[in-house]
Write a structure and sequence with these properties.
This protein is of the alpha/beta class. It contains 6 helices and 7 strands; from the N terminus they run βαβααβαβαβββα. The strands form 2 sheets. Strands 2-1-3-4-5 form a 5-stranded parallel β-sheet, sandwiched between helices. This is NAD(P)H-dependent oxidoreductase.
Length: 204
């Protein structure tokens, strides 16, 4: 797999509602590992969302993008494959921004990805926030670090956001039923917004 290759997950066409189209979801994973608690949380979020509306998912693992990403201080310096990856995030119907908490905030590599995103590319775009940390005390990263980041982009950061602490997992598998419940209730509250996004972007 190349550094900028997506992890793609789709729906069986037989399960899709007639007349609709898949919501293009792009996950920006800020974890250094592709098998992590952060990815485990996002997988539960996407599995739950998949029961509510048809989605097409790709994931960007920022720590796997390579020197063409890490050595770029400006968008123009990014290699073509990294440029294509950034454009994929900018073109999503729904962006899922997911990161572990390091020293009270998101990782620098995660921030570097969004340093290369066009300032206006995410305007009015739905963004769903997810984070993991060692304890529940880190949950405020959602409101005090991640939400302000996307406010800069004038993104439509959805009201619900999801956090899970280390004690909610067995390894990288989310086990806490209360977190599952929060995810289901939270997505139910915003699914109409996301469904409208897919309908509004549908080809004529």
């Amino acid at each position: 797999m190349s550094a900028a290759t997506a992890v793609d997950v789709g729906l069986d066409p037989a399960t899709q509602p007639s007349g609709g189209r898949e919501l293009r979801v792009v996950v920006v994973n800020g974890s250094p590992s592709v098998q992590s608690k952060t990815v485990g949380l996002v997988d539960v979020v996407l599995d739950t969302l998949r029961t509510m509306l048809p989605i097409e998912v790709s994931r960007i693992d920022v720590y796997r993008l390579g020197p063409g990403f890490t050595q770029a201080t400006e968008r123009e310096e990014a290699t073509p494959d990294v440029e294509a990856t950034i454009r994929r995030a900018e073109g999503a119907d729904l962006l899922v921004a997911a990161a572990p908490v390091f020293r009270g905030s998101y990782p620098g590599m995660f921030k570097h990805f969004f340093d290369l995103v066009d300032q206006y590319a995410l305007a009015n775009k739905p963004v769903l926030l997810a984070a993991t940390g060692g304890t529940d005390r880190h949950a405020l990263v959602l409101e005090h670090a991640l939400r302000p980041l996307f406010a800069f982009f004038q993104a439509l950061t959805v009201p619900v956001a999801f956090y899970a602490s280390a004690g909610d997992f067995d390894g990288t598998t989310l086990l806490n039923p209360r977190v599952y419940g929060r995810i289901e209730v939270g997505l139910t509250d915003v699914v109409d917004l996301l469904r409208a996004r897919a309908t509004g972007a549908q080809e004529p």
